[in-house]
Amino acid sequence: MSSLLSHNKEQLRIRKTLSDTSPASSPASTKSLRHERLSRLGSTGSHDVSNNASTNHAESYFLRRENRLSARKKAEEETMNSDYKKMYEKALATNQRLKSRLETSKQELAMIQDQLQRAQNGSDCSSNVLEAEKKESWSLKKRISDMEEQLKVKADLKMENQRLKDENGALIRVITKLSK
Residues 160, 114: contact at Cβ < 8 Å? Predict the structure, then answer.
């Protein structure tokens, strides 16, 4: 009777130990827990055949449970990693597109400023030509101010893009820590 009570207490302690361990524990620690559990079960004294069968059934149950949990966890990690990878690639593509647009705008701005400088230097012409140059100068200034506004917007987008990159990097680090 006392061996049956000690055996039941041992099984409860083993179950509690198994429930306290996280499913993300390493395979080496789960193997050592199984080995420890089997050695305890083997050292508790003589057991009858039905007790060994229930122990084997419990052992196979826990093994199947561990395999299911690890397979489910791997599937979730693969799904999350592919989602973050897609988001990261999309952010990179957007960043490249914005960089090319910014470079084009800078080139246009340089050309317009050059034209404006030439227009201001050539103000020795007749009054009609002077009037036309003033209109052109005014339109160029307006165009420059519009482009400067666009550059400000692009700079804001660039900062937002960088913030998203940083946030993405942080998420990737968190995922890698969680996957370990």
Answer: no
- Give 154's contacts (C-beta < 8 A, 6+ positions apart): 98, 101, 102, 105
The answer to whether the CB of 84 falls within 8 A of the CB of 171 is: yes
In 10 A of CB 41, how many CB atoms? 19
Query: What's the pLDDT tens digit per position in 36-70?
Result: 655 555 544 444 445 566 667 778 888 888 888 88
Angle at which helix 49-121 crosses helix 127-179, to 10 degrees, equals 170
CA distance 79 to 83: 6
- Quote the DSSP letter at residue 21: S
Closest alpha carbon to 55 in 92, 91, 10? 10
The ranges assigned to domains in the chain are: 2-73, 75-179
In single-letter form, the type of residue at position 171 comes to L
Cα–Cα distance, 57 to 175 (Å, whole number) = 36
Contact (CB, 8 A) for 122 and 133: yes
pTM given for the model: 0.28
Cα(140)–Cα(118) distance, integer angstroms: 12
- Cβ atoms of 66 and 30 closer than 8 Å: yes
Residue 78 identity (one-letter amino acid): E
